[in-house]
Design brief:
binds ligand L6YBMIIZ; IDP phosphatase activity; nucleotide metabolism; alpha+beta; nucleus; Nucleoside Triphosphate Pyrophosphohydrolase; 233 residues; 8 strands; snoRNA binding
Length: 233
Amino acid sequence: MTDIGWGPVLSESEGYGRLGDNSDDYTLLTHQDIDKLARAGYKPHQHASHGMIFFRKQNKLWDLYEQKGFAMMQMRFDGTLGFPGGLMDEGEAPIQCLNRELHEEIGLDLTKHAFSDDERIASYLHEGKNLVLHFYLKEVSAEEFFALETNTLHAPEYGIETLGIIRVPLFTMGDGLRGFPAFLTNHFAGNARSELITGLMAAKLFTQEDMEKAIKAYKDFIKNRSLIENMLE
Ligand SMILES: O=c1[nH]cnc2c1ncn2[C@H]1C[C@H](O)[C@@H](COP(=O)(O)OP(=O)(O)O)O1
């Protein structure tokens, strides 16, 4: 087999992952938009699919904090946080792309846990990047979640694209910041932060009020951090 090398292939997708996206850069697409894209063979855009696997469990963590369960994310090769998933290959549909990528990145057993098309909860267009992002959500039991996590160590891309699977802390500590709001202050790939918020709301793990409180705590922290950094300059 001729080795084509990854250089030319990767350089084409370099721009998609650049940091600095805002949530306003992404437009939420309707079902009609998606049907139209499918009829056009998903062209002329590049597409990517990512999925959130979670379990719900009402728990009092350390007898103190209300924990809602866990959601799975990953530390990516580029140092940002994201969901398992990736770019669609020629001839694929978004759901095929998702299942292929989840097998490669987290070793998902597709005979047991393949995602289905009706688990897509949102799709977004980034016009500037000509990129459509499809986002899927899957609920599993706690036991299945732990087994899936263990299996990630044997995934073909573990240690290459996926540097580690992480659990999103779904609780807030007494200072109102540590836990989920502090988690939101990390660097995320693409619109993964918005997807996380959307996914947790769609799963009804957060009430509107709890989510607004968490987002406010995270944004206040970022604002205060920038103020302090500016003062120190
Ligand atoms: O979790 C994510 N949510 C939304 N957008 C994401 C996420 N992870 C990455 N991205 C963006 C930015 C990336 O460059 C493109 C392509 O995804 P990626 O997973 O890097 O694709 P490959 O593994 O290189 O095929 O989507």
